[in-house]
Amino acid sequence: MKISVGNLLSAISHLIDIAQGRREHAPKVTYISLQLSNLLGLKPVEKKKIYYAAFFHDIGITVADKKFITSHIDLNLAKNHCLLGYEFLQKLPIDKDIADFVKYHHEFYNGSGAFGYDHSTTPFASQIINLADQIDITLDFSHPYFQQIEEITNWVLKKKGELFNPIIVEAFLELSQKDRFWLDLYNPHLRQIVMALSPEDEIYFDIEQMLKFSEAISLLIDNKSPFTHVHSQQLSQTVYTIAKIIGLDKETANKLKIAGYLHDIGKMVVPNEILNKEGKLTKEEFYIIKSHPYYTKLILSQIPAFKDDIANWAGNHHERVDSSGYPEKLGKDELSLLDRIVGICDVYQALIEDRPYRRGLPQSTAVSIISDMVKNGLFLEEEFLLLQRAIS
Length: 392
Hints:
Elements: E1 3-4, H1 5-20, H2 25-39, H3 44-56, H4 68-73, H5 75-90, H6 96-103, H7 124-138, H8 149-158, H9 166-175, H10 179-186, H11 190-195, E2 204-205, H12 207-222, H13 231-245, H14 250-262, H15 272-275, H16 283-290, H17 292-300, H18 310-315, H19 337-352, H20 363-375, H21 381-391
Antiparallel strand pairs: 1-2
Helix pairs in contact: 2-3, 2-7, 3-6, 5-6, 6-7, 12-14, 13-14, 13-19, 13-21, 19-20, 19-21
């Protein structure tokens, strides 16, 4: 099993864009960064690192509060998501320079950025990504680019030597004269344009590396709420135990473990105030919560290696055999055993964990509740018995 890191970047950045209410931010920043890198004559190895760092630069933004601009302007929020992104990337089997580039992408030339580092200590690649980031958040895509070029270039020129490296500013001013640059940024298929610019020696993860990546993603997801900080990790371990009980081959067992890690990735679009609400959810809030498995499957299906199995196992975890689940109301004949295993383990894990509105339940109570669900036709006896063996 080989997974393209470029595919992972594209899919996850798409989810972050949805969560932040921003269209194609990561592809735009990546595109601008690569075009600047070309004009600046950077070597292929450096452009490759910038490609991944620019796509990953906002991976630390996991709070779907719709305050996209604030998270880029407020220095405390900017520093926070830079650190989270850095810590996430440090866990991955990729060049450590990429993590550094992300950590310092909110530094300014004069040292007035998130960490207070100036141009002499901030990686040059981070300075490129920073300018690209600022250009995208400054552009108003509801208006034609030609109405904004003069204002944007004048602003960048004014901030030359203050916020932005003069060398990078000169490259941007040259780039801004090309209509194709702006037309590409406005192109609804920009993501495909950027993917076509991916490095020739693309990075691929094998399944062991993908497990590490998935676990790191699960930590980001679960950290959205103090009530779910170990949810995906423990669920993943339980489904993996069941995989060994039923004798799945190593690769399929690891795929199921990945599905466990990533089953709640769609929660990145759910605001924290809903996830952590102590009282009863409103009808509107419940519909927002119910959207998360839809986004899980949508995003994971964009990764070719996940499309036929992991995306379904993860995305179907709220479906029930009596067709009472969501978001697709799939029934017994449409849900595989592995779909149902992830689903029943999710219920068990949720029951034994603290929630804003109750304390975690004892194991025996949780098992009793799930037994009633089986009797009421929501799960089958097969997966219930497997769950009992796994947790005994």
